[in-house]
Amino acid sequence: ATPTAIMVASGKSASLGVLIKGASALQNAYKVKTVVFDKTGTLTVGRPEVVSVVLFSTFPMLEVCDAAIAIESNSEHPFAKPIVEHAKKMRKKFGARSECSKRVQNFEVFPGGGVGGKIDRKTVLVGNKRLMRVHNVDITPQVDRYTIENERLAQTCVLVAIDGKIAGGFGVLDAPKPGTKAVISFLRSIGISTIMITGDNLATAFAVARGVGINKVFAEMDPIEKANQIRSLKSTGNIVAMVGDGVNDSHALAAADVGIAIGAGTNIAIEAADIVLMRSNLEDVVTAIDLSRQTVYRIW
Ligand code: ADP
Ligand code: MG
């Protein structure tokens, strides 16, 4: 496209709430054949709610809640705040008179898995089954049953492990953004295939994907695996767009032919992307593709 056409398109796109950071993104977007969507915060609202709490073994509610509050207070993950708030409510219900005052040492983030640290010399992990497996925490049949039932209901099960034992869990539900289903079916109608890629587990991912009309899912992906999956999709000559919001999406956004960040997402994702959806509206994926098509066709 000519510089003038690109300038016109950039101006127009900005007024539509789509920030296009370079000429190449504008020239490539219309060729996209596959759009890969991150799940949490991209397809879903990213405002998850805790809908269930469970205790395992003989751990008391107060200890599980304190562990979750102390650890998650250090996390910026979208699950952190709802878990902290719910745990605070639970400990009040279970008779606590004062606020949780536990201190955390050696706080650590495990991307795509969860968070952890030391509380009163005990090792605490808060996150998914995969995180537990990686740290050799035993998943008992009882824990397994709870997580499977949660996942079938499109909930993510956040487990709390204390000194290597699963002590409790939170069922977290993050609903799809309204309008997501229509965007997916529109993309399909113009011959673009859609895929979900997520750090979440396969069962939860599939339950969410089914709900929005996506039938291909890559689950349990860490940030590097997400990027590798994008590269492998590209390797057949396929033009691939990636839509994401998180720190964990930044490699994949950079690896895609067209990286698209949700405006309300993290700065790292926005920096890594070619296109930013300023209104955080998934329909603007279509706007971006359409702008690209109009720009290029005006030149030819
Ligand atoms: P997505 O790829 O869907 O955006 P993330 O990579 O952010 O998801 O997280 C993947 C999974 O890791 C989450 O679904 C959750 O199970 C777990 N996880 C990550 N961070 C946390 C946290 N702070 N607290 C609890 N679970 C977490
Ligand atoms: Mg995300």
Automatic annotation (TrEMBL):
Domain of life (superkingdom): Eukaryota
Intracellular or extracellular location(s): Membrane
Family in the record: Belongs to the cation transport ATPase (P-type) (TC 3.A.3) family. Type IB subfamily.
The protein's name: Copper-transporting ATPase HMA4-like
Species in which this protein is naturally found: Cucumis melo
Range covered out of full length: 529 to 828 of 892
